[in-house]
Amino acid sequence: xxxxxxxxxxxxxxxxxxxxxxxxxxxxxxxxxxxxxxxxxxxxxxxxxxxxxxxxxxxxxxxxxxxxxxxxxxxxxxxxxxxxxxxxxxxxxxxxxxxxxxxxxxxxxxxxxx
Length: 114
Prior knowledge:
Layout: H1 2-18, H2 28-31, H3 35-48, E1 56-62, E2 67-79, E3 90-101, E4 104-113
Antiparallel strand pairs: 1-2, 2-3, 3-4
């Protein structure tokens, strides 16, 4: 299971890094340089669940500092629930907040966003 999560994380990171970003791209090299950072990104993408579009990665706005925070990583996609009639896609996402200490990233929180 762990290796599958790493493969999913790596594929999503490559796809996300090669796609146009809405805002600034996360610093995957820095975050993935520590096991705790890699585990945090794996938790974020696995918490997202099934998507009907490719996941998009970006850093997120932080109201505490009134600008984008490179330690707040958002991953989102769209999905089509089977129970819904029509062709509407719905947004969903996960906000992963990291703390960086001496070059090591630690996951502080995960927030699921509908």
